[in-house]
Design goal:
With 106 residues, the protein is mostly helical. The chain has five helices and two strands, in the order ααβαβαα.
Length: 106
Amino acid sequence: MVVSSVTPMISRATLVQRSLLAARLLCSTSKMIRCSVLVAVADLPVGVGVGVSTGAQAAAMSEHADGIIVGTAFVRTLLDHADDRDAALGALRTLTEELAGGVRRA
């Protein structure tokens, strides 16, 4: 973000609040359309993350958003391998590569 004398500084908390508001506005059936509209009218980057847990979903949403947010998928992956640290890290690496690959394909 370029900051000039006419562009007010926006706090991290404000960005988080706007991101959460944007996420609430995006329903699953029209998430891509609404996201595209938000990107077009917002003066800030728009990140989407509600329900993104596969490379295909990341690819689809990255065509309509400035960023993809993934959280629950990482936590779920770690919990699925809670008793084996090496397996958990391997599964996390695989998921990360899949998600990044999806974004790069878009």
